[in-house]
Design goal:
402 residues; alpha/beta; D-Maltodextrin-Binding Protein, domain 2; 5-stranded mixed sheet; 16 helices; globular; Extracellular solute-binding protein; Bact_solute-bd_prot1; SBP
Length: 402
Amino acid sequence: MKKFVVILLVLIALVSFSKTKLTFWGFMMNDEHARKVLEKFEKENPDIEVEYVQLSWANGFDKIVTAIAGGESLDVVELGNTWVANFAERKALESMDVFYKNYGDNYIGWNTVYYKGSYWSVPWLLGTRALFYNLELFEKAGLDPENPPETWEELYVAAKKIDALGNEIYGFGMPAGESYSPWQQWFLPAVWGTGGDIISEDGARAFLTSWRVRQTAEFYKALSEYSLKTKQADLAKAFGEGKIGMYVSGAWDIDYLETNYPETPFNVVFIPKPAAWFGTHASFAGAEVLAIMKHSKHKKEAQKLVEFLIRPDVAMEVAMIWPAIFPSHVDAGKDPWFEDHPMHKVFYEQNAYAKPVPSIPAWPKVQALLTEAIEKIILQNEDIDSILFEYNRKIQKVLDEE
């Protein structure tokens, strides 16, 4: 009997010893939720054990950079899509071109992970923006809540009518006074909606003086006259209090508004496009992406983990932690959950028009300058041509230094 027990213990030890141990650094899942998800993976792959490390958005980027510089062994890492170019430039990521070739047609969001001719990670969970509008304020302003704005002109007219309702009522909510939201929520996506951009695809030239950017700036400045201009969180609060007719935000505000302002009637629709005959309903493409690190010693097993995590059933389970981002799989919208959450379905479908920021390592510097330019136009009422010329020069200088 003792011999049997000893042999059994030896066999168990050998099995445990033979397991491949993967490291997975991520943001979306906390430790408890990650364990539930990863236990399923380990059950399907008994020869693989996964160690999960939760990162925070406050310092996660720096921790990854430090780990890479220190030669720490990382296998799979969740990245924000705006970081992909930076890490690809550092030669820290394994190319996912073969993965794209095998699975590309089943997923959307590949434009968020493309840099210099290759795909450097896999789109996992996608998030974007849509237009929130107050049904009650629409009715008070003589607008039809069943026919929300689909174009810039329709939105401008609606904002002007709602703004006329009273001193403490604003037609639109325009983000200002913080780093990302001034360009992210709509200004840059509005430029994209015209078919334009603020820099060339190769990151070599600045385009702020183009007619498409100028057209957007003129519209935005005109709209700002009927807008509450403040931080994004304050816009959500004001909208909930019935002080704003419309604003652009992410799906996270659905739960926020329903929880904190249950009496406020609202709906969400696609972001308006420049005109009925011109442009698209472009929006900002945010994404959680999965990268296999270049120096991983277990790339075959790491690929298995990535394949597991992007499965629509698994990705949907992760997304439900915070239903503001949704699986990248093309069939994810068929999940029964969306039948009971039609406003969330709008965001899922809006992803089809979403576009990522230019894939260049210099983007953090560019976005800071873009925010300055926007705020000078909408807050300080400075001349559009002068501002666009000045900041085109500044952004071009950043691009030239890269």
